[in-house]
Every structure is written in C-alpha cells, then in structure tokens.
Amino acid sequence: MPRKGIALVLSAPSGAGKSTLTAMLRKEFPDLAYSVSCTTRKPRPGEVDGRDYHFVSESDFLRQREAGGFAEWAQVHGNYYGTPLVEVTNKLDQGFDILFDIDVQGAAQLKLNLFNTCFIFILPPSLEELEHRLRLRGTESEESIQARLHNAYDEIKEARWYDALIVNDDLETAYLHLRSVYLAATLTPACQPELLQSLLQGGNH
Ligand code: ADP
Ligand code: 5GP
After folding, report:
1. Which of 37, 41, 43, 97 is the most exposed place for a label (fewest CB within 10 A)?
2. Same domain assignment for residues 147 and 199
3. Domain span at residue 79?
C-alpha cells in the first residue's frame, strides 16, 4: 500500500557534519529524494550545479522569490538560499521522501507550510570541536569561519522545537541515530493513512 512521502528536514550549525551524514543516508536510501536549493553563494570545489545546489545570481533569486517560487527562503552567512516550491510539492505528492538540508529559519517556515515532516538537528559535541572541523575542512576563509561560529550559537539556541537532536561525536553512532529517526518517522499513522482502515476491511499486510 503506498504511503505518504515525508519531508525529512536536517539542520545543523555549519561544520557539525550534516553533509557527511546526509551523504551516508542517501547512499543507504537511494530512493530518498533530495531538495536541491537555490543559492546565490559561489560553488565550492567539487560542488555540481543542479546536484548540490542551483547556483543562481542575486537578481534571478529575487525574481523567483517575488514570483512565489520558494517553499521557504532565508539569508544565511550573507547569501540567499531557497527551496524551489514546485519541485518539492511534486515529489511529495508522488509519495517520495525528501531530504532537506536547510537552516533553522527555513525549517521553521517549512513546519508551517508542510505536513508529514520530521525535523532533525545535528549538533557538534562541543563548540571547540565545531571550530576544529571547520578549519580542518579547509573550505572557508577566516572571516567566513568566524561568521559561521557566531551563527552556530544562535542556531543552537533555536533548536528546541525540533523532533530529534543528534550529537555527531562518533560518526557511526550519529548515523545509526539518524537512520532510526528517519525510519520511525515513516511509520506514523499520518504517513500510512489507509493502513488501519484497510486492515479492518480485511486487507492483508
Ligand atoms: P556541514 O555539512 O555540517 O557543514 P561537514 O559534513 O562538511 O559539515 O563536516 C565538517 C567537517 O567535519 C568535514 O571535514 C567532515 O569530514 C568532518 N566530520 C564530520 N563528522 C565528523 C565526526 N563525527 N568526527 C570528526 N569529523 C567529522
Ligand atoms: P552552505 O553554504 O554551507 O552549503 O549552507 C549554509 C547554510 O544554509 C546551511 O545551514 C544550510 O542548511 C542552509 N541552507 C541550504 N539550503 C537552504 C535553503 O534552501 N533554505 C534555507 N533556509 N537554508 C538553506
């Protein structure tokens, strides 16, 4: 019996390991669709347009925003980010689970706008370790590292309303927690709206 698609929303302070954990989840669950955001920031080495982000100019982003083209949008670290509305609603309607990698401001907008959601916040074991990982990754300027550390404090303060908090200390443990929360979220009655009625009517599951 087809079930409803779930919007699996992951947020984390930059450097906590969200991309790493997301890649692991997508490898194990290849049918999990990914919401490719639009952003005005420049691609990092290795990032592919259309796969990691739709890299757009500021004027294109603002035009799309004015046209109501985003399910949510936010300004993060001085750049615009937004979730294309039509892509997301089409996939959810078709029953696909969709993974969202978005910040807390965008997640709060999605909580108001979407049904069947699961909000997960990834935490670093400490703020010191967060700084260490950002430096080790080697993708940010000193100015960008300082901005991300400053934002981390504010983002962690906003994470109380999420459905699950996962500390990414040991990567394998964090991943086991992430996949468990995902699988549990797909078993809610809201995701399986016809199951009970069908069983009562003599269906076989
Ligand atoms: P984010 O997507 O949240 O910004 P990344 O996934 O890019 O973070 O991780 C930041 C850095 O930390 C990367 O170099 C990554 O390899 C490393 N990292 C991720 N998880 C762990 C972990 N559990 N222990 C140590 N290093 C980690
Ligand atoms: P990065 O530039 O490191 O890829 O992402 C910076 C931040 O922007 C991360 O917290 C990421 O989750 C967030 N982000 C990425 N895409 C979107 C989006 O479409 N909307 C919102 N609100 N945030 C996003």
Report:
1. 43
2. yes
3. 36-95
pLDDT computed for residue 1 by the predictor: 63
Say if ligand 2 is within 6 A of residue 72 CB: yes
Our answer on whether the CB atom of 13 is closer than 6 Å to any ligand 2 atom is no
Whether 145 and 131 have beta carbons less than 8 Å apart is answered as yes
Reported pTM:
0.91
Please enumerate in sequence order all residues whose Cβ is within 8 A of that of 114, keeping only pairs 6 or more positions apart, or say none.
7, 71, 88, 92
* Site residues for ligand 1, CB cut-off 6 Å: 12, 14-20, 133, 136-137, 168, 171
Q: What Cα–Cα distance (Å) separates residue 61 from each residue in 51, 81, 155? A: 17, 8, 24
In this structure, the answer to whether residues 21 and 45 fall within a common structural domain is no
**Mean pLDDT estimate for the chain:** 93
Instruction: Please list, in sequence order, all residues whose beta carbon lies within 8 angstroms of the beta carbon of residue 202, skipping any fewer than 6 positions away.
Output: none
Residues 195 and 140 in one domain: yes
Same structural domain for residues 113 and 204?
yes
**Considering its fold, how many domains does the chain have in total?**
2
Given a cut of 80, whether residue 24 has pLDDT beyond it is: yes
The tens digit of pLDDT for each residue in 112-150 reads 988 899 999 999 999 999 999 999 988 889 998 999 899
The conformation of residue 76, written as its DSSP 8-state character, comes to E
Same domain for 46 and 140, yes or no, is no
Whether the predicted pLDDT of 193 surpasses 90: no
- Protein residue whose Cα sits closest to atom 9 of ligand 2: 103
Boundary of a domain, candidates 79, 95, 111: 95
Which of 44, 61, 95 is the C-terminal boundary of a domain?
A: 95
